[in-house]
Write a structure and sequence with these properties.
The complex is a heterodimer of chains A (about 100) and B (about 500). Chain A has about 100 residues and is α+β, with helices and mostly antiparallel strands. Chain A is built from 4 helices and 6 strands, in the order E-H-E-H-E-H-E-E-E-H. Chain A has a 5-stranded mixed sheet. Classes of the chains: A alpha+beta (about 100), B alpha+beta (about 500). Chains A and B meet through helix 2, helix 3, strand 4 and strand 6 of A and helix 2, strand 1 and helix 3 of B.
């Protein structure tokens, strides 16, 4: 599984800050499912259309995860804006996720 | 609201502890270790091999998903392996799934269900059925809705429809599917044509037996059998050609047909038809002893249309022999616009009908011959005697014909020695009775009666015992003659002779 979610605003205006993230999951895993649900809730609440999310299933693309320095799933990697950050686990700690994404709660 | 989810622990068995130590060695970062300890990790990627190692819950979920996929494939394979057409419906009647047999069935079938494929609305097809199928469509739709609505668990319905291969019968079975899934009902069709045809032929055979039992004569028997076959097979008309043994030809004998002008004309034209063995369909059947059929008038038979016209017109024909003890006594020929290719059951049935009818015709003919023979015998008796009589076991008259001098009814129940005004010595009667008790035949037993004018009348009787088919004594039958004139002449002669002797002396 490799999915991408691209907000309309991200392509509409270069001035808007678009958060680019990659979520590494194991599609069959319950924690991965929770992580997706938790992240979508956070994005809906705090980023609206200002984010781009790619979801990678490591069972399909294990090399991709290793190349990106990911060793466990689920893991969320914020690619941009700088600084890059990584959150591991099912993203149930909302404060930690917001901090990693550079969003003030 | 964030999803925290249940945390699992890797403590417990020794194996689990070993597994935990192994995976912890694969991760370096503290955050990863904490997440593992919190049970928030599904998989760990081994940096050395690049393989993803699933933790127990993810493994179970993956296994479950695989099992579900396997289960679906298994169910699908079973559905496709079944040789009966099956569709699965949702709550609105949409076909969610159809097995491979259904896919073939839906394009070859011509009744309700034809053209229904995955994604079609089966209920709408039933609702929209028209013509002969409308009644069935309404009934089936009502039953399917009851099953989908779980008002009933099972609905069965038998119906018939016409197809390119003739009339066919189907049994439809709709079963409810339990659970909350979209699938609500399974519809299954079973082709019961063979069974139905067998039932119809069994019914035909029974009706033929009834016809034969009720028939008073050969004409009634043949007509009723032809009618039974026509009505139960849906054929227009049938004709019977009897084999004239002496001439060696088949002659038109009897017929029955639907009350249609064309049929009546066809049967009228058949009167007087004669077929030599080997000529035409009837002649060929007579020669071979095997049934023949033409599915329709255009079928190639090896015979010219002109040759067939008197037998089939424009129609198909089914011709089979009527036999008795393996010998052909006639041929039955049926006509209809189309004739279905007969199967083994049908051929067995016509053999049954042909043999039963033939046996009856032979028996009736034998009875007729016996009746004629008896008639001739009685006529001869009357030429050589004056009357015929029959007696029961106690030697009482049960039958006596009108030529008797004692009347034909007045003496019924009497014995010979009970006759009015009998004149015979007791010893003579005793001897006669002893012969009767011994069941002997007797000839020229003479006795006399006193008439109203006081003169004697003389009679001579002959008789023989009668036995039934198992050898039980049933009585006597015989003839009687009035010998009064001869006796009186003898008496007169005797008296004249005595007078001559007296005058001489």
């Amino acid at each position: 599984m490799a999915r991408k979610k691209t907000s309309r605003a991200a392509s509409d205006t270069a001035a808007s800050t678009v958060v680019v993230m990659v979520l590494y999951v194991t599609e069959s895993g319950p924690n991965s499912a929770r992580a997706i649900a938790n992240l979508e809730a956070i994005c809906e609440e705090h980023l609206k259309d200002r984010y781009r999310l790619e979801i990678i299933d490591v069972l399909e693309y294990p090399r991709r995860a290793l190349a990106d320095g990911i060793v466990v799933t689920p893991s969320l990697a914020k690619v941009s804006p700088s600084p890059a950050a990584t959150v591991v686990g099912n993203l149930s700690d909302k404060i930690e996720v917001l901090r990693a994404l550079g969003i003030r709660g | 609201m964030q999803h925290a989810g249940p945390s699992y622990t890797l403590s417990g068995t020794e194996a689990e502890r070993g597994f935990k130590r192994a995976i912890l060695r694969l991760v370096k970062g503290g955050a990863e270790r904490l997440a593992i300890e919190a049970g928030q990790i599904d998989a760990i990627i081994d940096p050395a091999s690049g393989n993803a190692i699933l933790l127990p819950e993810a493994q179970w979920a993956l296994n479950g998903r695989k099992a579900e996929a396997n289960s679906n494939r298994f169910a699908r394979a079973i559905l496709d392996a079944l040789c009966v057409p099956i569709v699965v419906l949702d709550e609105t009647g949409i076909v969610l799934s159809a097995n491979q047999t259904w896919c073939v069935f839906s394009v070859t079938h011509s009744g309700i269900g034809a053209g229904v494929t995955q994604g079609s609305n089966y209920l709408a097809t039933c609702d929209n059925a028209r013509g002969n199928e409308q009644v069935d469509g309404v009934a089936i739709a009502a039953g399917v809705r009851q099953v989908i609505g779980r008002e009933r668990a099972l609905f069965r319905y038998d119906y018939t429809c016409n197809s390119a291969t003739g009339q066919r019968w189907f049994s439809l079975c709709v079963s409810s599917i339990a659970g909350d899934d979209a699938a609500r009902a399974v519809v299954l069709y079973q082709d019961i044509t063979e069974r139905k045809r067998g039932d119809l032929l069994l019914g035909l055979e029974n009706r033929v037996l009834c016809c034969l039992a009720d028939a008073g004569n050969a004409t009634e028997a043949v007509k009723s059998v032809i009618r039974a076959v026509c009505e139960m097979q849906g054929w227009k008309c049938g004709r019977y050609f009897s084999l004239d043994q002496s001439a060696g030809v088949l002659r038109f004998s009897e017929s029955w047909g639907m009350p249609l002008a064309a049929v009546e004309h066809f049967l009228e034209e058949s009167r007087g038809l004669v077929f030599h063995p080997g000529a035409g369909l009837a002649g060929r059947v007579c020669q071979s002893g095997q049934p023949l059929w033409i599915l329709d008038g255009r079928q190639e038979t090896g015979l010219s249309p002109t040759a067939l016209a008197p037998e089939t017109g424009e129609d198909g024909a089914f011709v089979f022999p009527v036999t008795s003890e393996g010998t052909i006594v006639g041929v039955l020929a049926f006509s209809n616009p189309t004739i279905r290719e007969p199967d083994d059951r049908m051929l067995n049935s016509v053999q049954f009908i042909g043999s039963r009818l033939g046996r009856l015709l032979q028996r009736l003919e034998a009875l007729d011959a016996l009746r004629r023979s008896e008639s001739r015998f009685r006529a001869l008796n009357l030429l050589t005697s004056d009357w015929y009589w029959e007696q029961d076991r106690a030697f009482r008259f049960t039958q006596i014909n009108a030529g008797s001098p004692f009347g034909s009814t007045d003496i019924l129940g009497m014995t010979h020695w009970d006759l009015p005004n009998v004149v015979l010595a007791y010893s003579n009667w005793a001897e006669h009775k002893s012969h009767l008790d011994a069941r002997w035949s007797f000839h020229d037993f003479e006795f006399a009666t006193v008439q109203a004018d006081g003169r004697h009348a003389y009679y001579s009787i002959c008789g023989q015992p009668v036995y039934d088919e198992v050898g039980s004594f049933k009585g006597y039958c015989g003839t009687g003659s009035d010998i009064t004139e001869r006796k009186r002449a003898e008496v007169a002669l005797r008296r004249g002779t005595q007078g001559d002797v007296a005058s001489t002396t």
